[in-house]
Amino acid sequence: MARPKIKASLPPGLIVQLGKTVWQTMWQVMMSRLAPSDDQGAYTRPSSEFRHVVSADGDYPPESGRYRLIVGMGCPWAHRTLVTRALKGLENVIPLWRVSPSPNEGFWLFDNPGSEWRSLPELYQTAQAGYSGRSTVPVLWDTQTRTVVNNESAEIIKLLNTAFNEFATNPDLDLYPVDLREAIDRWNDRIYHAVNNGVYRCGFARSQTAYESACQELFDTLDVIDQQLATQRYLCGDRLTLADVRLFPTLFRFDAVYHGLFKCDRQRLRDYAHLWPYARDLYQQPGVAATCDLDTVRRDYYGNLFPLNPGGIIPVGPNPKAWKAHHQRHLIWNSNSQVDSFRKQNS
Q: Which residue windows are transmembrane per the record (predicted)?
């Protein structure tokens, strides 16, 4: 009986090496466009370019219904503007325009098919002819002058905090009070670098050294925050501030996205004794839960960041009902305040 002929083939080792080489080369090219880095492979986030303000004596006076807030529900930078808008009660003053990332085209598309613009780059071109910069969210858009007022989230939330108070349903809430600004700014600077942008520095790192450095700084900072929250309800004491608003969107996405996709896996948010109840406390503030869309967050990250998840499989993720669990933070803070008051009276 004749033996079956064995077809010649490349050795499996060569196939693996070839596939690895091709994929790593493609990965580096895609990452260079998605997330620019320095010579050490550390992610460097480009700066926002539109930095105007809303003021009564300026080019963009505060008016109800004049402006639009353009957001992507999965974006943490846009999320902080949504939280501020909700806390201040500006939902009827500044309507939303929503966009979603296109996995094939690589930019934001408007959700409303009847919109004047199909994509966010087209809107930016309307604001500034020949614009070649990044077309990012959030955007504070002026419908009268048809331009981008501001696309820096850290500045937009300050505008939402004060500029529209005459129209807000919660005008007395000051998230950036004068007496706490130094502490707020100090926390914001540290949290932006190590946490807000830190998770991206982990996920977008293009070298082992850059990744490990970012990861170490991220969790060292989370440890410090957790210790701080052991003795006070919020980052700056007993009052909710913009420091908390800026931290929350990263915490909301941490276990569902950053822990796995961005390799921030030393510890989960739910493993922290104080940070996890604190995050639930913020989630359960009036209006905040309505800004949180965990399904969209998972879809936008896992479905659109192809270099990090080439298979496109979207994990089920942790149970979102956990965000509604009682946090008891107000009880702890009241208890601490009573103890401090007792000590002062009897010292």
A: none
